[in-house]
TrEMBL record:
Keywords: Lyase, Pyruvate. InterPro entries: ICL/PEPM, Pyrv/PenolPyrv_kinase-like_dom, Pyrv_kinase-like_dom_sf. PANTHER family: CARBOXYPHOSPHONOENOLPYRUVATE PHOSPHONOMUTASE-LIKE PROTEIN (AFU_ORTHOLOGUE AFUA_5G07230), PHOSPHOENOLPYRUVATE CARBOXYLASE. It comes from the Bacteria. This is Isocitrate lyase/phosphoenolpyruvate mutase family protein. Transmembrane segments: none annotated. It comes from Ktedonosporobacter rubrisoli. One of its GO terms (molecular function) is lyase activity. The keyword Iron-sulfur does not apply. Pfam families: PEP_mutase.
Length: 279
């Protein structure tokens, strides 16, 4: 078994490779096991995916205890490193973030996404967010774990601030977050190659972007200098779309052909969840 400390080191190292880190986002044990079986070296969780699967809206509507329970089950289900999406840390104060980090580490994760947004309309100030990042870093150190902190700024995702100064604000935040102890900077909501190149040049650390259909491929993003590419809730939403199609066909027509559009063999699923044996 790979130790939690070693998993954290592996995750951190993956941000510094020439090829970069392609990180799918899981929302339950089945999705996590499938991503692992496909060959990924690490996975992230998706806060939106977990929230929806548990019957909540996104945006810290799922109680922290329930979110952490799912993260713990995912971390226990796979052998590869897991980075947990903890949204904005479940509370505004550094102490709130520290408490969440403490529980995330207990759950078995080795990295976190930590947002700077307050809802979808405002952001924590840079001094506020840097203190929150410092608290996360200190909690990792107390646990003796090189926790991988992916500091997310939502300047572009929610179009916060003046458009003319948004890039400069993002760069300023990225630099400050790295200085506060973050290992990488996550800027969701960007897709223009020229803008991504400016972010790569201006942020003095690994850049994470979120992708989806119609965007540049991961290899092309890595060539631009991006070091981490994740899919957020997109895979979970695609799964919901498939279930919706199955539901509509079954209810309206009483037929089952949509179930055959993306089949997964029962014996393969059985094998996927067979406990590993020890010699």
């Amino acid at each position: 078994m790979t130790t939690q400390h070693t998993k954290a080191e592996l995750l951190l190292k993956s941000h510094k490779t020439a090829t970069g880190l392609l990180l799918p986002n899981a929302w339950d044990c089945a999705s996590a096991k499938l991503f692992e079986a496909a060959g990924f070296s690490a996975i992230g969780t998706t806060s939106a995916g977990i929230a929806f699967a548990q019957g909540y809206r996104d945006g810290e509507q799922i109680p922290r205890k329930e979110m952490l329970a799912v993260i713990a089950r995912i971390a226990a289900a796979v052998q590869i490193p897991v980075s947990a999406d903890i949204e904005a840390g479940y509370g505004p104060a550094p102490a709130d973030v520290a408490e969440t980090i403490h529980e995330v580490i207990k759950a078995g994760a080795v990295g976190v996404n930590l947002e700077d947004s307050i809802g979808m309309s405002s952001l924590y100030s840079i001094p506020q967010q840097t203190e929150r990042i410092k608290a996360a870093r200190a909690e990792g150190q107390r646990a003796g774990l090189p926790l991988v902190i992916n500091a997310r700024t939502d300047t572009y995702l929610f179009s916060i601030g003046e458009e003319a100064t948004r890039l400069q604000d993002t760069l300023e935040r990225g630099k400050a977050y790295l200085e506060a102890g973050a290992d990488s900077v996550f800027v969701p909501g960007v897709g223009d190659p020229a803008l991504i190149e400016e972010l790569v040049r201006g942020i003095p650390g690994p850049l994470n972007v979120m992708v989806g259909p119609g965007m540049l491929s991961a290899p092309k993003l890595f060539k631009l200098g991006v070091k981490r590419v994740s899919v957020g809730g997109a895979a979970m939403m695609a799964t919901m779309g498939l279930i919706w199609d199955i539901a509509c066909e079954l209810y309206v027509q009483g037929t089952y052909e949509q179930m055959a559009s993306h089949p997964y063999d029962f014996s393969a699923a059985w094998k996927l969840f067979t406990p590993a044996t020890t010699a």
